[in-house]
Amino acid sequence: MDREPQFDRILIKLSGEALMGDQGFGIKPAMIQYVAGEVAKAHKLGVQVSMVVGGGNIFRGVAGSSAGMDRTSADNMGMLATVINSLALSDALEKHGVPTRVQSAIAMNKIAEPFIPKKADRHMEKGRAVIFAAGTGNPYFTTDTAAVLRAQEINAQILFKATQVDGLYDKDPAVHKDARFIQQISYMEVLEKQLQVMDMTAISLAMDNNLPLQVFDLHTTDNICRAVCGDKIGTRIYNN
Asked: CA-to-CA distance for 224 and 41, rounded, in angstroms?
């Protein structure tokens, strides 16, 4: 893809479910290789890449809590699940020729660096992709919130949410045949209409800090590259 990127530094948010493919649990090797290949294409355009990946394919804290677990314990398990996914993604990216570093919000020096914004800056300036693991390091916060927080801390120009759907609709398209696709929308409208693109804490934080968000389908080949090059794919969320 011989095009010029429209951004210098980006953060890509992936759900844990994106890595399990059709197997219902865990990490599907073919899927993680596909994801790594798509990210590698964007990296080769010269853009500085950082990532946050969820852990829902292994363990979801909210689900554990609803099943009777202590919420803090359940969320800690969820954060550890994101570390597993981050290490797997790092390995896959390295195999695609992308040097990586994993930085964790929870200290685990044997397998990941501690999260230090200035160190992440240096890594990206040197062409390394940085994967931020373990969410915010605190229970009760989702990886969506972690993605917005990290994007702000490293001064990313945009947050890409590469997901299972092609963007936002005014209602659930799986239920309502007349659902209308939304190409662009303000953060305030997302909050007012309670559209389920991210949790409300993440949306409010992005709005307060004027961080644009683009939501698009991960499973369409070259979508990450197209988004990096400024194509109007998916849904763009921004402040008016």
From this structure: 8
pLDDT tens, residue by residue, 47-106: 999 999 999 999 988 888 888 899 999 999 999 999 999 999 999 999 999 999 999 999
- Summarised one tens digit per residue, pLDDT across range 156-200 is 999 999 998 899 998 888 788 898 999 999 999 999 988 888 999
- 3-class SS letters over the chain: CCCCCCCCEEEEEECHHHHCCCCCCCCCHHHHHHHHHHHHHHHHCCCEEEEEECCCCCCCHHHHHHCCCCHHHHHHHHHHHHHHHHHHHHHHHHHCCCCEEEEECCCCCCCCEECCHHHHHHHHHCCCEEEEECCCCCCCCCHHHHHHHHHHHCCCCEEEEEECCCCEECCCCCCCCCCCEECEEEHHHHHHHCCCCCCHHHHHHHHHCCCCEEEEECCCCCHHHHHHCCCCCCEEEECC
Give the burial string for 102-132 (b: 16+ CB within 10 Å, else e): bbbbbeeeeebbebeeeebbebbeeebbbbb
d(CA 65, CA 74): 6
Domain 9-238: CATH class, spelled out? alpha beta
Quick one: 47 exposed, middle or buried, by C-beta within 10 A (0-12, 13-18, 19+)?
Answer: buried
154, 124 Cβ separation under 8 angstroms = yes
pLDDT tens for residues 116-138? 999 999 999 999 999 999 999 99
Strands 113-114 and 129-133: unpaired
